[in-house]
Amino acid sequence: MKYLLTGLGFISTHVALYLGEAGEEVTITYKSLNPVKEEYLSLFKGKVKAVNVDPLSEEMTKLIAQHDVVANFIGEISGDEDRLRFANVEIPRKLAKDAFDQGKTFIHLSGATSTGETGINVKEEKEHCKDSRATTPFEKSKCDGEREIMRLALERDGHLAILRPTLVYGRYSAHIQFVTMYKLVKTRIVPELGLRMATINAWTLGRAVQTLGKKSPKGLYLYASECGSVPVSRFFELMSQETGGGIKLPVPTWLAKSVLPKDIRNLLRYSGTTYDCSAFKEVVGELKFDEEEVRANARFLNYLEKKGKLIPT
Length: 313
Hints:
alpha/beta; seven-stranded parallel beta sheet; two-stranded parallel ribbon; Rossmann fold; 44% helix; single chain; 2 domains
């Protein structure tokens, strides 16, 4: 099958590589590049086709026509409300409309925080995005984006799957969370925090996109999570194993919140929240936290640092 992935980032890079190695025909799009994204492009040689295109252009519409499945990875986690709405609502809406109008399957990567639900074993709501508890501009834009895509799917009888991943990790991550962790353990400090986060491996999302692309469901929305939570301290410990070790230092949660970037602080209210993974397991099979991916991520960030390219993306 032919898969079109919109948006070049660490998650879509893992998905593209997974699909390419599985024998699928894959095209990934990007609007602009930075030093990290240039490294991602270098990983694709001979495996994935990369195209520079504006997501709202006529050229993108033509690209969609040439593929069987469109998977959207374009989105923003920070910025003002207009920026968030443009990336998380307007662009997905246009891509979904083009996909449904041309009879393509559309897979949208949203986020586990889109409805603002917290607790133990949070399940998918019976009626999509009803009674949302989203509070931040980011959360609200994500849920609004889901609503628009679902509305279009119902109007056009479109094939749609919405994935809501929890904290995504993977060897090629350069998200600010992981860059922050890496820089801290490089100082030989290994924080011990009383925080736990639900996680999902980026490679597993690749498996999900492949399976959903073939099944071509209608109106599906589900949390993508590894059936539990992982201590945030474990990420620091695993990275420190690749950076020469360090001294474990207990850090009160209030202190961690005060020094972390705002975009990370906003996610900390989800500490301890877990998600029902039964629906996701039906799509991807067994799920397990992969510690080697975190160690490999530290090695990748070290590689970027040596090349002078260690910037959050």
